[in-house]
Design a protein that fits this description.
Blueprint: H1 10-30, H2 35-50, H3 56-86, H4 92-119, H5 123-139, H6 162-175, H7 184-192, H8 196-202, H9 216-223, H10 230-265
Helix pairs in contact: 1-3, 1-4, 1-6, 2-4, 2-10, 3-4, 3-10, 4-5, 4-6, 4-10, 6-9, 6-10
Length: about 290
């Protein structure tokens, strides 16, 4: 694999960073797959709610409780596999914090998908809002753009990004305490980036120069990912997951109440629930004489 068994040389700094961000991106964007299922179940629930079968709170929270264990299981399996496959920093506490961050990030992404599915009118709108929002969040996660380089009029968007807190948490968990080495291949690769005149002067005393990234703290400070600690980042992710879930419940209850009021008043402008999302029209049966 591309990230299998990263070492402790200078090249591993970028490899570890890319592997961690790839793990987060995979988990967050994979939550988008549950959007269509939720929309189909939402339409079915709304029909049953109009009929007075059960309350919105009973459906929403029972569904959340039923789906969470399976989401936790898949996130935990992926966390364990990625941790040992990449060869991240050993230690039980590092392993537990890594798995906890990935699991909570997955739940936060799922909560966001549910919130979008509860607010949007149809699956076409959801198919646009979900990926676009996740893509924007990834820009403000600290990997593609340095936090200090953000313009002031968009800098506030970083605080709404799942990537910001999850990436900072797993990066600090991984890089704090790590020491990196500089071998001859690292030095040769660095010399190739210099022009000929500079290289001629540097080659004589290159063995006296320090490593570009001697330890993990240097890398964290360079990326501005050491401003919020691991546990505060995890706490913020929990708040985001709960907040998105509550907003989803509010949106679904608002939609169901609106439909029930329309049904009672028999207004013509009431929204019409789609009967099927597969796009297939029912076939007409041939008439029998």
């Amino acid at each position: 694999g591309l990230f299998y068994g990263v070492g402790l040389n200078q090249r591993s700094v970028q490899d570890r960073t890319g592997a961690l961000y790839f793990v987060l991106t995979t988990q967050i964007f994979s939550a988008q797959a549950s959007m269509r299922v939720f929309l189909e179940e939402r339409d079915l629930f709304l029909r049953e709610r109009i009929a007075g079968t059960y309350r919105t709170s009973a459906y929403f929270w029972s569904k959340s409780i039923a789906d969470t264990p399976l989401q936790l299981l898949f996130a935990l399996i992926f966390s364990v596999m990625s941790y040992y496959f990449v060869g991240l920093q050993p230690g039980l506490l590092h392993f537990l914090k890594y798995c906890l961050t990935i699991v909570i990030t997955t739940l936060a992404a799922e909560s966001y998908v549910i919130m979008v599915g509860a607010w949007v009118p149809d699956d076409k709108t959801a198919a646009i809002l979900g990926p676009v929002a996740f893509a924007l969040m990834s820009l403000f996660g600290g990997f593609f753009l340095n936090i200090d380089s953000l313009p002031f009029f968009v800098a506030w968007l970083q605080y709404l990004s799942l990537f910001k807190y999850s990436f900072a948490a797993i990066m600090q968990n991984e890089f704090r305490g790590l020491k990196f080495t500089c071998d001859e291949e690292d030095s040769a690769s660095w010399l190739e980036t210099l022009d000929d005149s500079t290289r001629a002067h540097v080659e004589e005393f290159i063995h006296l120069l320090p490593c570009p990234t001697p330890d993990g703290e240097t890398h964290l400070h360079r990326l501005k990912l050491d401003q919020i600690g691991v546990w505060p980042c995890i706490a913020v992710l929990v708040l985001i997951a709960v907040g998105f879930r509550v907003l989803g419940f509010v949106a679904l209850r608002r939609r169901s109440r609106k439909l029930m009021m329309c049904g009672q008043q028999r207004e013509r402008k009431c929204p019409v629930l789609p009967r099927n999302r597969g796009g297939k029209k029912p076939q007409d049966h041939p008439k029998q004489d």
